[in-house]
Amino acid sequence: MFELELDETVGKGPYEDILHETLTAEFVSENDRSKRRGKKDKKPGVCYMSDGFSQVDYVLVYNPTKSDGQRKRDIFEEELLRAGLKLDYVQANAKRGGLMFIKISAPWEVLSTYAEVMHFKMPVKESCLRREEWQAIYEGAPPNREVCLAGNEEIERALGNSRLSLQPRPTKKMMHKQFAVTFSKTKEYLFDIPEIKEDFFSSAQRSQIVNYILQRKTFSRTESEESFDFGVDRLIRDGTYMAAYPLHEGSNTEADHSLRHLLLTQWASLFSTFKEQPLDDIRRYFGVKVGLYFAWLGFYTYMLVPASIVGIVTFMYGLLTVHTNDPTLDVCERFEGLVMCPTCDTGCEYWNLKENCKHSMLTYLFDNAATVCFSVFVALWSAAFLELWKRYCSRITYQWDLTGFDTLEENSRPEYIAEMAVLRRKYAQKGRDTDDFRKPSYWRRKLPYTIFSISVILLAILLCVAAAIAVIIYRMAFRTVLALKGGDEVTSSVIVSTSAALINLLCIVLFNSIYSQLAVKLTDMEMPRTQSEYDDSLTLKMYLFQFVNCYASIFYIAVFKGKFSGRPGKYNFVLGTYQQEACGTGGCFQELSIQLAVIMVGKQLISALYEFLWPLLMKLLQSQNQPKIDNNADIREKMAAQGAIDDDDRPWERDYCLPELGQSGLFFEYLEMILQYGFVTLFVAAFPLAPVFALINNIFEIRLDARKLLLQFRRPVGQRVKDIGVWYRIMDVLGKFSVLSNAGIIAFTSELIPRLYYLLKYNPNRDLVGYVNFTLSYFDTNHYDKNVNHKHRERLGNSTYCRYWDYRSAPWEDRAYKRTVVYWEIFVWRLVFVLLFENIIVILTTLIRWLIPDTPRSIQAKIREDNRLTNELIILQELKRRQLERGTRRSVSCRDFPDIAETSAFGTEESSTTEEGAQPSPPRV
Fold first, then answer.
1. CA–CA separation, 327 vs 347, rounded Å?
2. Which residues form the Anoctamin dimerisation domain (predicted)?
3. What's the rounded Cα separation, in Å, for the pair 535 and 537?
4. pLDDT tens digits for range 385-427
5. What is 378-437 written as a DSSP string?
6. Residue 578, SS3?
7. Per-residue pLDDT at 38
8. Tens digit of each residue's pLDDT (9 = 90 or more) over 731-752
9. How far apart, in whole angstroms, are the C-alpha atoms of residue 27 and residue 702?
10. Burial class, 256, CB count within 10 angstroms (exposed 0-12 / middle 13-18 / buried 19+)
11. DSSP secondary structure, 469-496, as one string
12. In the 3-class helix/strand/coil scheme, how is 670-730 assigned residue by residue?
């Protein structure tokens, strides 16, 4: 129905009929060679059709006992045959459910035709010629010409020179880098096609081509009003087919020398935890998109090593100096007899400052002098990480022939094409010429849906904020209950913080499951043209919500908690009932660290358990959902007509029991890692061990994801992408926002600025002895209301004064309980610190971005050299072909073919030079 997409037009055109006739004719003419593949020619672990030659690229599954949808299946399968695909019908054994499996194979004619439509870049022939052969082709030997046009050693040398010391190698031995250009079926002689042509395309490319056809074939002979009667996904949703998937290679238990077995033993095994990832093999098996994900995840994990080392050093510094810290000694020894005011106006008790000793020691582990240095390091680390990733990514895209990939060449989504067909039909029904039809403008189509999506997202965010406020109210109420019952203040604080963090974690998981489905619906309504645009739109919606959902409570503790709680005798209340929370004597750093640790570590544990248990549960449900049926004559006749077989080894049945990864499978993997990246960068000042936990998680995350893709999920369809997409821009924004976040945490949540203020201005000894007493204000207990009753009043002795943490005037002064000058001076210095911190980091990160170019010069030079040599290879093959056509061996000059010579590097230097800083584009056939 919507077979090929040559331009913005949609619908079925004359080119499609010509294509089908050509494919059918060529398919029949090539049927005789289907018996040429011997046992030695068969790939290990690959499943073949009943002819023993054709490789199985895709499998369709349906229940033959259900008569509903039989008409749709017949039409759809007829369209597949008309497109040139081969179909094999195999029925499962009764004990396995009796389902019908349709094995699909794409012959060379289909593969080559759609490879050109989908703009696949394939390797061209490379020739090592003797100088005499060059002289026979060109007039005279080219000066300074080597024996070979290109060598693998030269390419590996260029790749090695471009590698920085901080960049890991993607694999121990990179695959041979062949010159590649966009495939053209009319110039097959230019490409390095083997004797068995089908082996020219990898299994990931073959499944991608078949999936492209399956998504665009119709299952209806009548044009419906909505024109959505096409695509295998629609048939799966309405139950016509039960599944559609490409096959895994080989067995998951036996050593069959297949690529899958190689990846299982050398990549997905725990014994390969500290080995380099075979990225080229991953790309060959799963496609570019999955390969880039693991390349990014491996690079991110590698870059966490220096951040983890510095984080451990920062934590060890606090651990080693906690017993010599003057503020801690003030709390535990020097001012242990100070009586502190009750933390609420009714029911709480007086307590001694010494009871806060453990709290003060625990806070100092994360709030010490090394925190600022570590925050500066992480800000610079995040900038260096992004810049080094761009260099690393440019090397990978060069190796994988993605340098000239343009997203504008990406084929439109079938849903988008169908929507345009509906609009075209409505346009024609109004009596207008369809040749004048143009797709709806941004203002008429995209803007209204965008506004609606933003409104729904804001509503979801408000609900998320409401849940966070509910957790805050719970914390207030629970703290009041514990205070009324009495007990240790530090223990109560830890219990309240931990329980509130666990409740917040449960809210996060619940909201994630609901909002994920909502975001998909909103993105479907927007109807993006390409899959990349669809993924980017969905990613932005999901991450915006996840950002608020995961970080709302953390921002509350870091920014708002304790800032508006009031003072003894005049505490502020929420809803007139719940007293606002106040920070402890050492500030809110302890609670912020607990919140970060619980949410970050807990979320990673839940994600790991979900990734491990969910595929097993889905596999169990899928295997039990196979119906028992009897074989009927019609099915057997259809199977016999197609040459169906009854294999003992049935990988299609084995893979059917596995759950589907789906188009958005990698999205949640990226989302988990980017949220982790946010914890590492945004709040690292409060939790220096965040990079350590992230590193430990990622070391096993790589292997867990690898085993999940190889064993626990069906093989995903390969996709081509240029980079990691919008995730890079999200990380860039997080890196910039983390500067402000860490500056605010250090300035307003930690005690760094007050300590420096006291040390430099108030203490002539230039130490922090007496700092705790400096931060405490006085309150006269006689100023309490008469109906207020606090426990342990005997701790006051003969005094009527208690102490509380704040900078307020004493009760005997004229402006009793008002903010002092010290408070406002410290507040100003906090703002000055934020400004200085931000500007210094911005200058340093800008310098890093300037010093580290996005693409290494050696790679840029190699791309230009490859383009030049590729042009020469193309010209060489053209000249040799012309010689064979003329049947002569005379000396041929490039001047005999001026249309070709103009593109040669021998005729002009234009092909080997580009503007400064510009990415050279590869040649196109």
1. 29
2. 48-279
3. 6
4. 999 999 898 888 888 877 766 655 566 777 777 777 766 666 6
5. HHHHHHHHHHHHHHHHHHHHHHTT-TT--GGGSPBPHHHHHHHHHHHHHHHHTT--GGG-
6. strand
7. 53
8. 999 988 888 888 888 888 888 8
9. 43
10. middle
11. HHHHHHHHHHHHHHHHH---HHHHHHHH
12. HHHHHHHHHHHHHCCCCCCCHHHHHHHHHHHHHHHHHHHHHHHCCCCCCCCCCCCCHHHHH
SS3 777: strand
Rounded Cα–Cα distance for residues 282 and 703 (Å):
13
Rounded Cα distance between 674 and 727, Å, is 8
Residues 6+ positions from 513 with CB-CB distance below 8 Å: none
Identity of the amino acid at 427: Y
Q: Are 241 and 80 in contact (CB under 8 A)?
A: no
Report d(CA 41, CA 48) in Å as an integer: 12
In whole angstroms, what is the distance from residue 15 CA to residue 162 CA? Answer: 46
Tell me the per-residue pLDDT of 892-924, one tens digit each, with 9 for 90 and over. Answer: 444 444 443 333 333 333 333 333 344 444 444
Q: What are the DSSP calls for 490-530, one per residue?
A: HHHHHHHHHHHHHHHHHHHHHHHHHHHHHHHHHHHHH--SB
Q: Which residue, 312, 251, 246, 322, is CA-closest to 285?
A: 246
Here the tokens at position 859 are 């790679």
List residues bridging with 62 in a β-sheet.
Answer: 100
Indicate the SS3 state at residue 853.
Answer: coil
- Mean per-residue pLDDT, 582-608: 72
Cβ 521 vs Cβ 481: under 8 Å: no
Contact status, residue 168 vs residue 298, Cβ threshold 8 Å: yes
Q: What are phi and psi of 346, to 5 degrees?
A: -140, 130
Report d(CA 359, CA 355) in Å as an integer.
8
529: closest CA among 405, 422, 407, 423? 407
In contact, 754 and 776? CB cutoff 8 Å: no
Question: pTM for the full model?
Answer: 0.78
Q: Which residues pair with 128 in a beta bridge?
A: 148
Q: Encoding tokens for residue 50?
A: 């009943």
Contact of 147 with 129, CB cutoff 8 Å? yes
Taking only the tens place, the pLDDT of each residue in 751-791 is 888 889 998 888 888 888 888 888 888 988 888 877 777 77
- Residue ranges of domains in the chain: 14-120+188-247
Token code pair at residue 62: 């349906």
- Local structure of 808: helix, strand or coil: strand
Contact 784, 793 (CB under 8 A): no
Angle at 59 between CA 57 and CA 65, to 5 degrees: 160
Copy the structure tokens of residue 148: 């070979």
Q: In which residue are the tokens 């943490």 written? A: 805
Using alpha carbons, select from 900, 909, 922, 925 the residue that is nearest to residue 138. Answer: 900
Report DSSP state, residue 922.
P
Assign 99 to helix, strand or coil: coil
SS3 letters for 92-134? Answer: CCHHHCCCEEEEEECCHHHHHHHHHHCCCEEEECCCECCHHHH
Residues 6+ apart with CB under 8 A from 517: none
C-alpha–C-alpha distance, residues 236 and 60, integer Å: 10
Q: Which two tokens stand for residue 225?
A: 């009003």
The pair phi, psi for residue 655, each rounded to 5°, is -75, -25
**How many CB atoms neighbour CB 325 within 10 A?**
19
